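lol ok so funny story. i was supposed to be doing the assay writeup but got distracted and ended up predicting the structure for this chain instead. priorities right. anyway since i did it might as well share w the group, maybe its usefull for someone
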Amino acid sequence: MEVFEDPNAGNNLMYVSESGSVAVAPAAKFRDAKGVQWRGAMKVSARKAGEKDFDKAKKFGVEVFEDMKTGNLLFVTETGSIAVVVP
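and the output, tada:
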């Protein structure tokens, strides 16, 4: 994953995954820390519309990281999708 700062858009941060997924977070106060810290992992299930139970649901792995420079939480799926939660 790469992180870019866009000064032309109010210093928004853009997180781009290897698969091409993009997540944008508002400008943040930067800390002196660097890198990311692994915070946990989980398996989540997604069922098709109309299905009542999760017996046939597809499972996806998700890992959670903290961007130590901003405090943002990054959720990265095994398919390369990403989401950012701003504290």
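The chain has a mean pLDDT of 90. The chain has no helices and seven strands.
back to the writeup now i swear
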